Amino acid sequence: MAGPLPIGDPAPRDGALPADLPIDRDTPFSAYLHVPFCRVRCGYCDFNTYTSGELRGARQDEYANTLIREIALAGRVLGDAGALRPMDTVFFGGGTPTLLPPGDLARMLDAAVSAFGITDGAEVTVEANPDTVTPEVARTLADAGVTRLSVGMQSAVPHVLAALDRTHRPENVRTAVDAAREAGLAVSVDLIYGAPGESLADWEASLDAATALESDHVSAYALIIEDGTKLARQIRRGEVPAPDDDVQADMYELADERLAAAGFDWYEVSNWARGDDQRSRHNLAYWRGSDWWGFGPGAHSHVAGLRWWNVKHPAAYAQRLAASESPAAGTERPDREAHLLERVLLETRLADGMAIVDLPEATRPRVAGLIADGLVDAGAAIRGRVRLTLKGRLLADAVVRELTD
Predict the structure, then answer these.
(1) Which of 12, 40, 33 lies closest to 230 in space, CA to CA?
(2) Angle between helix 63-80 and 314-322 (nearest 10)
(3) What would the pLDDT profile of 192-220 be if each residue is shown by its tens digit?
(4) Which label site among 10, 39, 79, 206 has the fewest CB atoms less than 10 Å from its CB?
(5) What average pLDDT does the segment 121-147 reach?
(6) Over the Cα atoms of the chain, what is R_g?
(7) What whole-number percentage of the chain has pLDDT above 70?
(8) CB-side exposure of 104: number of CA atoms within 13 Å?
(9) Helices (H), 272-395
């Protein structure tokens, strides 16, 4: 299970939005649907997920009905606030959404479309464990309106998967991708690098396997050790080594090289796509500060600068909705300074970069020093934007600190 929820102001029990919220109906709207179930807890995972033994009163077979109640509540709340808009993107994340019957996912999607509407050509993504995707599952999802499958590959090397507590069979990644393709779905694969015992050669093998799949999109994330996870405890006890920053940097550079050679362009520090039309539009909505409603236990939402988050446990989530109450646990409205910090943090990670005039006025002169250090692209800066170089991507956090402190 994930760490504690943020500390914020109490959320209204009816979920109503503040009357003075500056709603902009031209801002794109997205929906995130959280499915918090996993067969096994991966040692590195800090997401709000639960195995069957941890549900304590919540029922997996009733989950779709419970989440649909929150969709109905959201439709009322947004309608009352004049903030109801059709969805541009929908994302089923987890956990493992495909642990639910595909018909349950279809019902949740249908409920969201009925409540909000959906734009023509909207992107609808479902995350999946490779072992849970069959041709029948893929066809059912496609028939329901899903357009994209995000497959949790993580690695192609058995001992690396074991170090991450991943239980899927490596060969089933190809099976899942083929099933998605046959159903007409776009495909993304997720990779993780820097696991205990993973060599550069292991990572190279995983990259080769991923590019051989000829997917439309690849995400590659450096392993981060989160407090409270099994892996953090193993490292603290000296049972496995902590990730090596230099090795992870070498792995990132190799990923960028191999993915570029295979026809992928980077568009965010950890994401590559085969052309602009294959970028994850849902993730771009987060990075660009659009509005979204997060459904499910522990899910976070954002509308017009207001943020809120739901109670974490599926049982508490179900109890709130059964009582016709909002599942929101807390809320906050970040001030202008916090909002600007977040903009710099997110927008500078994008290949499109961030407009220099949108930086804090006091830090704009520092762009010249970042160019001199090889962290920011000089040509992009002349055109008025901060765009990271490869070296800058490796040191993105340092760039953000320089531009915000």
Answers:
(1) 40
(2) 60
(3) 999 999 999 999 999 999 999 999 999 99
(4) 10
(5) 98
(6) 21
(7) 99
(8) 17
(9) 281-287, 314-322, 336-347, 367-372, 378-382, 390-394
Q: What is the spatial distance between Cα 272 and Cα 269, in angstroms, rounded to a whole number?
A: 8
Give the pair of three-digit tokens for residue 368. 């010249």
Which sequence spans correspond to the domains of the chain?
Answer: 29-287, 335-405
Q: Which fold has domain 335-405?
A: Arc Repressor Mutant, subunit A (1.10.10)
The CA dihedral of 236, 395, 205, 95, to the nearest 10 degrees, is 60
Q: Which residues does 350 contact at the CB level (< 8 Å), separation at least 6?
A: 267, 268, 284, 287
Are the C-beta atoms of residues 89 and 285 closer than 8 Å to each other?
Answer: yes
- The two counts, helices (H) then strands (E), for the chain are 15, 14
Q: Please count the other Cβ atoms lying within 10 Å of the Cβ belonging to residue 226.
A: 14
66 residue type, one letter: T
Contact 344, 364 (CB under 8 A): no
Q: Which fold has domain 29-287?
A: TIM Barrel (3.20.20)
Give pTM, 2 decimals.
Answer: 0.96
